[in-house]
Amino acid sequence: MKINTAEIFKPTIIASALVLVSSLTVGIASGIFSFYLGSTSLEGVTSPQENPTQKINNKDSNEIKTKKFSLMSEQNILIKVYDHIHKAREESKVKEKTKK
After folding, report:
1. Cα–Cα distances in Å, from 67 out to 6, 31, 58, 62, 74?
2. Is 61 exposed, middle or buried (0-12, 13-18, 19+ CB in 10 A)?
3. HEC string for 27-63
4. Which of 6, 15, 56, 78 could bridge 69 with an S-S bond, Cβ 3.0-4.6 Å?
């Protein structure tokens, strides 16, 4: 079986091969560049502690004694939020009255 060299070097085959090689090259180059940018942007980032409450509960003995970590009740949180919102509203009403 003879291979005709004239068929291998047709312009359409050469153009197709060039497009394929150039697209592979650009894809690999952009992947390497993206990996480089991503790794440099995450250089100083560290993962958080697994259990942040341990940091609160286990203070050194020579430090000031603090309360143990405890959860607040939802009702107390809602009361504080409600009071804060209404206090801010009252202060804004007072400011509006003094401006007039």
Report:
1. 87, 51, 11, 15, 19
2. exposed
3. HHHHHHHHHHHHHHHCCCCCCCCCCHHHHHHCCCCCC
4. 56
Give Dmax over CA atoms of the chain in angstroms. Answer: 101
* Look-up of token digits 């005709």: 4
**Contact present, 57 and 70 (Cβ < 8 Å):** no
Residues found in the chain: 100
Q: List, for residues 47-71, the tens digit of each pLDDT value.
A: 776 766 666 655 554 455 566 777 8
Mean of pLDDT over the chain = 81
Question: Any idea what DSSP says for residue 9?
Answer: T
How many helices and strands in the chain, by DSSP H and E? 4, 0
Task: Please name the amino acid found at residue 32.
Answer: I
